[in-house]
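Lecture notes, unit on binding sites. The following record was shown on slide 14. It pairs a sequence with adenosine monophosphate.
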Amino acid sequence: MDIDLKQFIREIPDFPKKGINFKDITPLLADAKAFAYAIDSLTESYISKKIDYVVCIEARGFVVGAPIAYRLGAGVIMVRKPGKLPYECSSLSYDLEYGSATLEIHKDALKAGDRVIIADDVLATGGTALATIGLAESFGAEVVDTCFLAELSFLKGAEKLKPHTVNALMKFDY
Ligand code: AMP
């Protein structure tokens, strides 16, 4: 049975700042059938792909990536904002529209040859996912795919991630 997932996305205009049309995924998470359908749909693509780890981006990416990892029999790796991870970290800074941001990963999180997918809730400009790919590849891990509940296609994040591929359950062009 197919479920129209878009009906579970709530649009919040001007959040967290003016001009951003925020895609609120909490109604999708709260609906047991929609959430299970979304996780199963994303997981399906990776069943025979021998994925070792799902690299999950703070914080909504944890909610998307962890159940996919569980289903795949893969591990969960957390990528977090600075100062949140307790052990020694590798970090990577990247440019935002205004200013810059940094992401961290434990320095022993991955090793060369690990096959990973990256998970987050929404692909917007792609800056965050690209930095996460950079962190994973700094270990010599192979980024097999990136996956999202939704892609804001008008922001061209998928272009930025090339040649890496994007698996998004919903596409929004607004
Ligand atoms: P990006 O521009 O792709 O680096 O997006 C950065 C992060 O912000 C991602 O983890 C998304 O979860 C979140 N994000 C950006 N824009 C939106 C939006 N319009 N609605 C919901 N989440 C967003």
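Take-home: Residues 49-172 form a domain with the Rossmann fold fold (CATH 3.40.50.2020).
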